[in-house]
Structure formats: C-alpha cells, structure tokens
Here is the input.
Amino acid sequence: MQTQRTPAEMGPLADGQTVAIIGGGPGGMACALALKREADRRRRRVRVVVFEGKRFGLHYNQCSGVLSPPLQQILQKEYDITLPAALCQRAIRGYVLHAEEGSVVLNGREHGGVSLAVRRVEFDEFLERCARERGIEVVEARATDLEFRRDEVVVFTWGGTFRAAAVVGAFGLSRAMTATLARCTPYRPPRALDTVVTNFHPAGEGYIPSLLDDHIHVLLPPLPRIEFGALIPKGNHVTVIVAGEGARTDDMDAFLALPAVRRIASCRPDPEDYFRGRFPVSLAPGGFGDRYVTIGDAAGLVRPFKGKGINSAIITGGLAAVTMVERGVSAEAFRSFHRRCAEITGDMPYGRLVRRLAHLTSHHFSLDPVVRLAEKSPALREVLFDCVSGRESYRRIVCRRGNLPLAARLGAALVLDRVRRLFG
Here is the structure.
C-alpha cells in the first residue's frame, strides 16, 4: 500500500516533473493536452507521457461512437481543436423510442442539437495526432504494473520503466489495470453493466443516405439480462449495442430476433463479430489518493444510466490536469478535483432512480402506454429525449416543475394497461 505523505510534499507540478497517463482514449488525451496547456501558461517544463497499448485504426473499440453536444464546443473552446468533417460518418437527428406495438420520435433539433456518429478508433487516432503535434509523448506500450514510492510512482510497461510524480488512470474498465491499481492503492473499480456490440451492413460497403432515417433507435426489451439496446446508423453500417448485468452474445441474438428490431432494420440483421465491453454505473471507491487519480470510466465519473462517456472523460481529464498544476498531486489536492465533478457525482442518485424506473416499466409493464402518451404530450417527449440523450442532468429532469402531474398521468396509464393485459 502507498505510504501517506503530507500535501506539502506533493504540491503543484514543477519544472522537470513527469505525469504518466495510462490510457490514450479521449480522457487520457484531454488530460495530457490540458496538462501541457496549463504548464506552458505558467512556463513550467512538465513532461507528459501517455501509455496506450491499443493500435488505433487496427484494434476495435467497444464504444458506440456517438459524440454528443456540447463536445465540439468543448474541444474548440478548451483545447483549440476542430473536428474535421471527414471524421463524421453521420449527423444524428434524434432518437426513436420503441415499444412492443408503437414508437415515438424524439427530435434532436427540437430539443437539444445534433450528435455525430464516428468510428471511435478514428476519433481516438485524431486526438492522439493532436497530442503528438503539441509535444506530448505517446508510448505505444501497455502499462503492466505500478509501484508507489515515497517521492514517485514507478510505471512498468512492455517498453521499459518510467518514473513519474503522479499517475492518471484513464484506462476505462480494463480488468488488468483496475486490478493493478487496486492492489497498490485503496482504489476499487466501479460497478458496471456488461455490453455486447456488433455491426451489420444492410447494403454493401458504400455510404447509405438516411440510414435508419439518421436516428438512433432505442429499445428497452423485456429480456432478462438486458436493460437497453440501441441501433446506431454509421456511414455504411449499423452498430448494435445491448447492455445489462451479465449480458451475453445469446442476449444479442435474442435482441436481433425481436420483431421491433426486424422492423427497424427492414431486414434480418446479419451480424459480424461480437465485441464485449462494460460501462460504469457507480463511482469507484478510492478513485484518488496520493500521487494517483482516476478519470472517466475508471473513476465511474460518467453521466449515470445514459453514460455520455466521451464527454465525461474529456471534462474530468481536463479538471484533473488543472488540479495537478494548480494544487498538486496529493489526496487532498485530488479531493478538490472530485468536488469540481459535483455535477456528475451529485447526479448519481437520480440516475439510479431513472434506471430502476426504466427497468420496472420494461420488465413488468409495457412501454406502449408511454409511447401513446408521448405522441400527445410535448412535455413527455422532452423528458424522454433528455433521459435518452443525456442533454440534462437526471436531477433536473426529476425535479423539473410540471413533471409531477406528468408522472401521475404516466403511472395511471401504465397501471390501466397492466390491468387490461391481465384481465382482457
């Protein structure tokens, strides 16, 4: 276990010090870019090293690859990065929520802007290129172990040994790295849902205009291990993701066989390879301490239930960087970082409530009354859009004025539909 040190011994980053960032995804690269920016502003020569074992463009990423607002504005304002148009495979105009018998369109332009569908590995490769151009070292080797010493952290990798003043955990829910950090520190990985991801090509390799009408199609199917599933249009293919505790490939098979999925796809989906992943649904205990801090998925710092993992990773990576330059790398300094993440951490109880309500509705009632009421109620459509897209915090959704009468109407409709189904 790490030796306790006083905050004074781990003050703001100074000339000649090194920060090791484990993980070269959006959170890790954002943290590296922000560290370089903040150190340069103060004329401090801080070495920033990112360790990434994945080869972007070669290895698959189990992420749905949707960039949600206001990500483009964050990248432009905070990092002076403009996304190239070629990176965007499709502008997502909104969502469609499906029930057993019907569906309702949740228009993005009406409620919260347009998302972008990308190939996640191409997006990660672009951010890596930006980081290298700004003088950040990227080591193409997997970190294998850590050793916390009195005045440094030793990082062991496939490519050699590195010494740093602090280490940033931007490794997502990598089982190897979460276990390594948990062995060395009080860190424990967050609780997580399992995901299964696949792709299918409806019509060959060329770009398909208006694929799925440029909407993400969302289902809350009554399958035992599945909490939600979605079909996401990309350039020439559809990405399908299902999520739930213990989700398996046969759950994906059952999902693809649902009549609603067949209707959406207008064909029998012919899936390609399956990929497994996870995303967090709780905060990580011990997510920071002396000389280490975790960000994004590794910390459980994502929008509950919805995720918006790319946005959250970039935001929390930037906040962690500012903290290290301004306050230092002690547990006390990183406690202030966690306070800066209050918009995410304070939303967790409300996200859990929405998640449980969604599970209760889909597995014990029917979504059809919800869809029918939403077709007539702009207020309910807005609530559903916010829940599905993550535009608003769940706290604001739950506490929004006027939602209590709406919830009462919705509850009554669900109960009446349940009675009708039971007694005919």
